[in-house]
Amino acid sequence: MGSTIYDYSILEHNFEGTFVNHKRAKKELLDTALQYLNAPFLPGGRSPFGLDASGFTQLVYKINGYALKRTAVEQSAQGEALSFIEESEPGDLAFFDNQEGVIDHVGIIMKDNYIIHVHGNTRIDRLDHTGIFNTESRSYTHSLRVIKKVI
User: Fold this and answer.
1) For position 48, what pLDDT does the model report?
2) Structural domains in the chain?
């Protein structure tokens, strides 16, 4: 899932699955993202066997026909910034920074102030104007920097 093969005739294989060669509706992003729920964290990962935060968002967007850059800081340069979390809609991206102010994390906004992202594994947490609130640890794990509407 998420692979691009340009010339598969040399593989001598008949592909029997489905593929996307167009842009899907924005609402489809969350359906795709939820398929990766509980996939483990893996630095540099972009598969169900392991993902990192920006690899996850890049893969979800790619499967739905949209191009995102590879790292969170590169992805944060794409799209249109929103002023308030209330302006966001499901499928928009939220970016988070570290103590030095460098963007180092990204997740996909869901409805009702939730976010799906990779932190230990692909998980769903609460999102507010401060950042990501982990209800298990009862603490903020990431500090919100900017919300972007990419599509």
Assistant:
1) 84
2) 8-149 (3.90.1720.10)
pTM metric for this prediction:
0.89
For residues 61-76, give the mean pLDDT. Answer: 96
Q: What is the DSSP string of the chain?
A: -----S-GGGGT----S----SPPPTTHHHHHHHTTTTPBB-TT-EETTEE-HHHHHHHHHHHTT----SSHHHHTTSSEEESSGGG--TT-EEEEE-TTS-EEEEEEE-TTSEEEEEESEEEEEEE-SSEEEETTTTEEEEEEEEEEE--
Token pair for residue 65?
């026909």
